[in-house]
Design goal:
The protein is an alpha+beta fold and 502 residues long. It folds into 3 domains: 4-135, no CATH class; 149-284 and 345-425, HUPs (Rossmann fold, 3-Layer(aba) Sandwich), CATH 3.40.50.620; 432-497, no CATH class. The protein has helices spanning 94-103, 149-165, 181-192, 212-223, 237-247, 259-268, 287-292, 300-309, 323-328, 331-343, 351-370, 386-393, 397-400, 405-413, 432-451, 455-458, 463-469, 476-497; strands at 4-10, 13-18, 21-25, 43-48, 53-57, 66-70, 73-77, 117-118, 124-128, 131-135, 174-176, 199-202, 228-230, 271-273, 378-380. Helix 5 runs parallel beside helix 18. The longest helix is centred in the C-terminal third of the chain and has 22 residues, at 476-497. The mean pLDDT is 94.
């Protein structure tokens, strides 16, 4: 069970329910609750001394920590769903959801629920019976440093080596390894420093993924003389997402494919390394989108519109919206909220890289690591080393826009492996296997709603009926495939908002 604390001011004093002291995640030296800048590590911590609550989190707010401040009370947990009162209808945050249903992640401190907020990065939350106070510095968005391309790459290589050196293992461990850049860099640097894993393990993703991750990872492990194992993906994407959505606090549509991998790591390794943070600031996975939609501070509404249209569901989301939600979660509300967040990154060296790091990485990608995996092992995240992030955040935009920065660093640090490609170069698989997978998802969703969640057919917005209607007309298979995970999410959210389980 995730740690939770509720404080209620009464005439006789403050009643405390739950964990009076908690530390989630880990700290690399220092006191997580001490004054001053947060120490290295990814963590959330609090202490209630009977009169005053003190809570703090890591420099980036990567470890989830949520709070709910009502009149005369405060609740705190690493799981936002633990802050919902049983049987109570919960008001939704419509501006936040207008963005989420299009992009697939929440912005800044937003959650699906109006009364529940994520703690900001490097924040200090205090509470007494007089009420709460939250203090957090402005986002560190440094401008471009005076660097040459070679200095930018060399700085990355050396600072990453120092970050790994600060996180060398003290025991045998299993390393999750993909066919991408981030975990490859971690593995090769650990081997260079004489600390190889006992085993490399790869998870399998859902179709249309071609399975190249595991094949490339196995090739790299073989070159390094390390054993490698590929785990089967969860048998049902529908059931995996039904579990992963509430397990991650209804804050992301990602992470379900990692359930088998996380379960294996929990059973077999007290320590693992994660590449979270390695993408957005170094070699952004959305680099083509960024090139096609450059950051223009004079036209943030136009940029917001283009990002919303290119998001996870894009224009397809309108198929699931009824008359009520079409107003509450309108494109206009989403644009207004997104413009406000985009403006916070205007002074960054790489504004859209900064935007994705502080929002998609922090509020979505990190949850597979810290919501699904935390509490069972020590999880090192070398890409979130303070000095390394400071360097990467100040690399000039022009050095990153071609999308080869991490490749150049890897080739510089480990030229002997420069010829091994990456899984992202392998095209996705389409055809009968993908069609069958999509039909299985829809069949399981409909079966679950008929036999276990009949309220889903009676909910006001008729999401299931709208999903089925989206299966008519040109482009129906791809449209329904994109909408199915969001439809499940909205049905689960409706249950939670109505005071039922998800």
């Amino acid at each position: 069970m995730k740690p939770r604390l509720r404080l209620v001011a009464t005439a006789r004093g403050v009643r405390a329910e739950g964990d009076g002291e908690a530390l989630a995640g880990h700290v690399l030296g220092g006191d997580p609750l001490a004054e001053g800048p947060p120490p290295e590590g990814i963590f959330a911590a609090w202490r209630w001394d009977g009169a005053r609550l003190l809570a703090r989190n890591d420099r980036y707010g990567m470890h989830p920590l949520y709070y709910r401040a009502d009149t005369g009370s405060l609740a705190l947990s690493t799981d936002p769903l633990a802050l919902l009162r049983p049987g109570e209808n919960a008001e939704l945050d419509h501006d936040a959801l207008a963005v989420f249903i299009r992009l697939g992640f929440f912005l800044a401190e937003d959650t699906p629920f109006a009364a529940i907020r994520a703690l900001p990065p490097a924040a200090t939350l205090t509470w007494t019976r007089d009420g709460p106070e939250v203090n957090s510095p402005a986002l560190p968005v440094p401008g471009a440093a005076d660097l040459t391309p070679a200095q930018a790459v060399d700085g990355f290589v050396e600072l990453f080596r120092a970050a790994v050196a600060r996180r060398l293992p003290e025991r045998s461990y299993v390393l999750p390894l993909s066919g991408g850049r981030d975990s490859r860099h971690i593995l090769m640097e650990l081997c260079r420093q004489g600390a190889p894993p006992a085993l490399c393990v790869s998870g399998a993703k859902f179709p249309p993924d071609p399975g190249a991750d595991a094949r490339v990872a196995a090739t790299l492990a073989g070159r390094l003389g390390l054993p490698h194992r590929t785990l089967a993906r969860p048998r049902s994407q529908f059931h995996a997402e039904r579990i992963a959505n509430p397990a991650q606090g209804m804050a992301t549509l990602n992470g379900a494919w990692t359930l088998s991998l996380r379960a294996f790591l929990r059973r077999n390794s007290p320590l693992w390394y994660d590449g979270v943070g390695g993408g957005e600031l170094i070699q952004n996975p959305s680099i083509e989108l960024i090139r096609e939609n450059p950051y223009d501070v004079t036209d943030l509404p136009g940029l917001a519109d283009r990002l919303l249209a290119a998001g996870r569901t894009g224009a397809r989301v309108d198929y699931l919206l009824g008359p009520r939600t079409r107003v509450l979660w309108s494109r206009e509300r989403a644009r207004t909220r997104l413009v406000r967040e985009l403006a916070r990154h205007a002074d960054a060296a790489f504004p859209l890289g900064s935007f994705f790091f502080w929002n998609r990485t922090r509020r979505s990608i990190s949850l597979a690591t810290f919501a699904l995996g935390d509490g069972h092992a020590l999880i090192h995240t070398p890409y979130l080393d303070h000095a390394l992030v400071d360097h990467l955040a100040s690399v000039p935009h022009r050095f990153l826009i071609d999308g080869t920065f991490h490749d150049r660093a890897l080739h510089k640090a480990f030229p002997e492996h420069a010829g091994l490609g990456f899984a992202s170069a392998v095209p996705q698989r389409h055809g009968l296997v993908l069609v069958g997978h999509r039909l299985a998802y829809l069949t399981r969703l409909l079966g679950h709603s008929l036999y276990r969640e009949r309220d889903w057919w009676r909910e006001d917005d008729r999401v299931l009926r709208r999903l089925l209607a989206a299966g008519r007309g040109p482009g129906a298979p791809q449209r329904v495939s994109r909408l199915q995970p969001l439809a499940l999410y909205l049905l689960q959210l409706e249950s939670l908002a109505a005071g039922r389980t998800a």
